[in-house]
Specification:
- By secondary structure, the protein is of the alpha+beta class.
- It has helices at about 5, 65-75, 95-100, 125-140, 165-175, 195-200, 220-235; strands at about 10-15, 15, 20-30, 35-45, 50-60, 85-90, 140-145, 155-160, 185, 205-215, 250-260, 265-270, 275, 280-285, 295-300, 305-310, 315, 320-330.
- The termini are far apart.
- Helix 2 (about 65-75) links the parallel strand 5 and strand 6 (about 85-90).
- Helix content is about 20%, strand content about 35%.
- It is globular and about 70 Å long.
- It has two domains: about 5-235, Aminopeptidase, CATH 3.40.630; about 255-330, OB fold (Dihydrolipoamide Acetyltransferase, E2P).
- The strands form three sheets. The protein has a five-stranded mixed beta barrel. A four-stranded antiparallel sheet has the order 15-14-12-17, with no helix packed on it. Strands 1-2 form a two-stranded antiparallel ribbon.
- Bound molecules: zinc ion.
Length: about 325
């Protein structure tokens, strides 16, 4: 018997226990309120046949609700009889961020996806990161973290992985090519060193972020993109039958520059998420409350891909993040 066969139907995530040919539910402990545990709902879809375990999660940033909505749909619609392996869906990786519709954890203001691997005896969010990281590392053969631009920004549909030169990174790139999008951010960015996917990759587990949409809305097309990414990656792993989607060509990016405003006002974008811009090209302008143009925000680089942009007429303050411009390496 292979390890996969031995393990099949035996994994548990919190109180959820896998059962071959079934979908089971439970709760994963991620911290404690003064009077009760802090948990995420977990669904485990366990195929009739053995195979790899895909850990998929949403809402590590509270307003990024496309992840759990797509996970609900994929798992509730799955044919377990033809499935080889297991999909673990952790619906609300940051339960308090979800409840408050907040990107950062309301209890301590931390961005949970910047502090991995966390610390078991550290401050609140460090402990949550530790619980999540250990639970995922214990069962996952691959990890998928679903994100969006949240309530303030819009992002294109793309895949992001940690290009640390390891075998896990090469596998992550393969999985990224099956995510249903031609756009891949092969990141070596230092500011993402505390992200969960970076640390999972360092542990030898291929890991991806999928980004799509945001701006406070969730159109049906964006839910479908997330569903395509989840099923495409599960297919590339051999968990779901059939051929994974392939694009005719891929655009690969790295090194994101975060562009900040100098003044405050209403932000009027001049470009869209996913556009490629020239150096000095206007990304948008700020209007004061009288409607006067007081600042034009421009791209610091050429062949820059708009990885995120603040939503239309979003009120911004000085030093607010206006856009993420990522250098195109090949297309
Ligand atoms: Zn996010």
């Amino acid at each position: 018997m292979t390890i996969m066969e031995q393990r099949h139907g035996t994994i548990a995530v919190g109180t959820a226990k896998a059962e071959p040919g079934k979908i089971t539910r439970g709760e994963l402990l991620l911290g404690h309120f003064p009077d009760s545990p802090i948990t995420s709902p977990v669904m485990i879809a366990c195929g009739a046949k053995p195979g790899p375990v895909l850990w998929a999660q949403g809402c590590i940033h509270g307003p990024e609700i496309g992840g759990p909505v797509a996970l609900q749909r994929v798992l509730n619609g799955i044919d377990l009889t033809t499935m080889s392996g297991t999909i673990v869906a952790v619906m609300l990786a940051n339960p308090n961020g979800f409840r408050e519709y907040s990107r950062n954890t309301p209890l301590d203001g931390e961005n949970l996806n910047r502090i991995f691997p966390g610390a078991p005896a550290g401050p609140h969010s460090q402990q949550t990161a530790h619980y999540l990281f250990e639970a995922a590392s214990a069962v996952a053969d691959a990890m998928l973290d679903l994100h969006s631009g949240g309530d303030r920004s819009l992002v294109p549909f793309y895949a992001l992985y940690r290009n640390d030169g390891s075998a896990a990174a090469r596998k992550s790139h393969e999985l990224a090519e099956a995510a249903g999008t031609p756009d891949i951010w092969a990141s070596t960015d230092g500011w993402l060193k505390g992200a969960m996917f970076t640390n999972m990759t360092a542990r030898g587990i291929p890991s991806l972020i999928i980004e799509c949409g945001g701006g406070g809305g969730l159109p049906e097309a964006h839910v479908k993109s997330f569903e395509t990414a989840i099923t495409g990656i599960a297919t590339a792993l051999g968990i779901l039958p059939g051929k994974a989607p392939r694009q005719g060509s891929y655009r690969v990016m790295d090194n994101a520059l975060l562009v900040y405003s100098k003044l405050g006002g209403f932000f009027e974008p001049a470009v869209e998420a996913g556009e490629v811009v020239d150096e000095g090209q206007a990304l948008g302008r700020l209007l004061n409350p009288y409607g006067d143009v007081i600042e034009t925000v421009t791209s610091p680089i050429g062949r820059g891909w708009i990885g995120s942009i603040r939503k239309r007429y979003m009120p911004v303050y000085s030093g607010d993040q206006i856009a993420e411009v990522i250098a195109v390496l090949e297309d």
